[in-house]
From TrEMBL:
Superkingdom in the source lineage: Eukaryota
GO cellular component annotations of the record: exocyst
Taxonomic classification: Eukaryota, Metazoa, Chordata, Craniata, Vertebrata
InterPro entries per record: Sec10-like (IPR009976), Sec10_HB (IPR048627), Sec10_N (IPR048625)
Protein name: Exocyst complex component 5
One Pfam family recorded for the sequence: Sec10_HB
Coiled-coil portions: 40-78
């Protein structure tokens, strides 16, 4: 433990009798001083003893250090000597190794010609046997030495190729015959080993056959036997993938060039199995059923490309992508060349059939919408004047728009876009997609929506018709829903196919043109429908409003709050407002309601101008306008409500006391109105001609 002087002195004092208060003993400083002096002397003696011991140890340490340094110097000298010996030994070993290498080269130079000579001698011996016509060597008669025999006959066959035919024709024939026999035996041996599943034997035989001309036949046999029993299920593509997976694991253990063998197997599968399967499936429907043909073509091409993707994980050589693409192209090229013509032809006939089936279900004979100079002239006149040209058609409430028809057309087009994406060449994809889009525009937009708009326009009655049924808003509602679906398919399925091509601008322009064309007809139909609504209101007012309503015979006996004409007009307006809200969406609702509200206000304003008003009649007119204003609140259009507020304020001029006319006219709501308008309302009072009233207003 570390030495602490204070603790040491405390312990010493505690042990000394009289040095503390222990046990009630009195403190004795003399004894404590004596004890301290004695203890100091003991410590001095101990210090001297330890000092002598330290000096002795230091002397011993210095002596040993000198001895150790001397020993290290001796070891360094020994190490230098050993290092010199090692260098000499290394030089000697290098010298000997050089001599040995030189001797080895000399021996090899002597041995190689000797081995060649021995080999040549053996070949000459075997050649003599063929020359004599009798094969006596064990290597030719022992079936177990077929490997050695194959090596010999292969070399003899090469030699025989160099010999002149006229002198050695017979022996060349014998060697060729033996070469062929051995080749057949090796292939047969390979076949048997493959059937037994002996991979090591297959590898040995394949290595021997590698130098024979029949090596490719060996590979063909292997490929043929691999496929035995491999295609037993209905799914030829899955069977092919499983077969290639299995062969891929085995082929590397058998052949020295596994990627070539596997590529040849895949080529065989594509050119034999798959091509035959595809041809059978497609030719069955090619001329008789375009729909099934296109479905089968899409399905088979998709499954073939999926199989190709699975095969990409195998080692098939350097450019396996190009290799597999060529195989796929070789199978489908005759079908893909005219694919888009078949697609367009099918889409055209299918779309026409869907539309015709719908019109037949409605017992409707589709009328021809004329084209040419006269029709164009009518169209321009109608757009400028908004007049119905030609007789009105009673559609009996039928809009001739069907969401089911639209869904069917869009579904057919969606499938066509998917097939186009998969089956079209990348360079032709935008062009083909545009052709499909053109078919959709023709049958959905022109033949269905545009025809329904034309029919709806023709079905709108004239503005002076009584009890007219207005169905055009139903056409607007359905056309709006349908066009949302059309726009969604344009963005979801067409845009990805043309987004990076010049066809994008062409498609967008075509879409814009068709939208503008439909918007013109929708605007025209809505405008004429609003005119019809106003005409119906005018008819109600004409039929229900009596002159006595506002100039009753008995001023003191008026029991009604508002007139019957007002009740019926407000009921009719509320129904039309609700119908407009249900038929449109977004800002279109506000736009149409504002137009209807303005026309409604103008109608009521002009209607009120036709009557003279007594005091009680004026009060009743104010009640009517208050009810019209309450009806105007349903429009939720600030301008319309403001117009009726102003009209309500104008009606106050019919009942206000003559003395207060100027004050009312200068009020907040009437101050900005033209004085002629105010004067026209004051003139409607029955007491207008009184001098007092004329004087106050002037």
């Amino acid at each position: 433990e570390p030495f602490v002087a204070d603790e040491y002195i405390e312990r010493l004092a505690w042990r000394t009798p009289g040095g503390g208060s222990r046990g009630g003993e009195a403190f004795d400083p003399k004894r404590l001083l004596e004890e301290f002096v004695n203890h100091i002397q003991e410590l001095q003696v101990m210090d001297e003893r330890i000092q002598r011991k330290v000096e002795k140890l230091e002397q011993q340490c210095q002596k040993e250090a000198k001895e150790f340094a001397k020993k290290v110097q001796e070891l360094q000298k020994s190490n230098q000597v050993a290092f010199q010996h090692f260098q000499e030994l290394d030089e000697h070993i290098s010298y000997v190794a050089t001599k040995v290498c030189h001797l080895g080269d000399q021996l090899e130079g002597v041995n190689t010609p000797r081995q060649r000579a021995v080999e040549a001698q053996k070949l000459m011996k075997y050649f003599n046997e063929f020359l004599d016509g009798e094969l006596k060597s064990d290597v030719f008669t022992n079936s177990e030495k077929i490997k050695e025999a194959a090596d010999i006959i292969q070399k003899l066959h090469l030699i025989a190729q160099e010999l002149p035919f006229d002198r050695f024709s017979e022996v060349k024939s014998k060697i060729a015959s033996k070469y062929h026999d051995l080749e057949c035996q090796l292939i047969q041996e390979f076949t048997s080993a493959q059937r037994r599943g002996e991979i090591s034997r297959m590898r040995e035989v394949a290595a021997v056959l590698l130098h024979f001309k029949g090596y490719s036949h060996c590979v063909d046999v292997y490929i043929k036997q691999c496929q035995e029993g491999a295609f037993l299920r209905n799914d030829v593509f899955e069977d092919a993938a499983i077969l290639c997976q299995r062969v891929n694991k085995q082929v590397g253990e058998v052949f020295s060039n596994p990627e070539t063998v596997l590529a040849k197997l895949i080529q065989n599968i594509f050119e034999v199995k798959l091509q035959s399967y595809v041809k059978d499936r497609l030719e069955e429907h090619r001329k008789s059923d375009a729909e099934q043909y296109l479905k089968n073509l899409y399905d088979l091409y998709t499954r073939t490309t999926n199989l190709s993707s699975k095969l990409m994980e195998f080692n098939l050589g350097t450019d396996k992508q190009t290799f597999l693409s060529k195989l796929i192209k070789s199978i489908f090229i005759s079908y893909l060349e005219n694919y888009i013509e078949v697609e367009i032809g099918y889409l055209k006939s299918r779309s026409a059939m869907i539309l015709q089936r719908y019109y037949d279900s409605k017992n409707h004979q589709k009328r021809s919408i004329g084209t040419g100079g006269i029709q164009d002239l009518k169209e321009r006149i109608r757009q400028r004047t908004n007049l119905p040209l030609g007789p009105s058609i009673d559609t009996h409430g039928e809009t001739f728009l069907s969401q089911e028809v639209v869904v069917n057309l869009l579904q057919e087009t969606k499938q066509a876009f998917e097939r186009c994406h998969r089956l079209s060449d990348p360079s032709d994809l935008p062009k083909n997609a545009f052709r499909i889009f053109s078919m959709l525009v023709e049958f959905l937009c022109t033949e269905h929506i545009d025809y329904a708009l034309e029919t709806g326009l023709a079905g709108i009655p004239s503005s002076d018709s009584k009890n007219a049924n207005l169905y055009f808003l139903d056409v607007v509602h359905q056309a709006n829903t349908i066009f949302h679906l059309f726009d969604k398919q344009f963005n979801d399925h067409l845009m990805p196919l043309i987004s990076s091509s010049p066809k994008l601008s062409e498609c967008l322009q075509k879409k814009k043109d068709i939208i503008e064309q439909m918007e013109v007809k929708l605007d025209m139909g809505i405008d004429r429908t609003l005119n019809c609504m106003i005409g119906q209101m005018k008819h109600i007012l004409t039929a229900e409003q009596k002159k006595t309503d506002f100039k009753p015979e008995d001023e003191n006996n008026v029991l009604i709050q508002y007139t019957n004409a007002c009740v019926k007009v407000c009921g009719y307006v509320r129904k039309q407002v609700e119908k407009i809200r249900n038929s449109m969406d977004g800002k279109n609702v506000d736009t149409v309601l504002m137009e209807l509200g303005v026309r409604f206000h103008r109608l009521i304003y002009e209607h009120l101008q036709q009557y003279s008003y007594s005091c009680m009649g004026g009060m009743l007119a104010i009640c009517d306008v208050a009810e019209y204003r309450k009806c105007a609140k349903d429009f939720k259009i600030a301008l319309v409500l403001q117009l009726f507020d102003t009209l309500h304020a104008l009606c106050n001029l019919l009942v206000v006391a003559p003395d207060n006319l100027k004050q009312v006219c200068s009020g907040e709501q009437l101050a900005n109105l033209d004085k002629n308008i105010l004067h026209s309302f004051v003139q409607l009072r029955v007491d207008y001609r009184s001098a007092r009233l004329a004087r106050h207003f002037s």
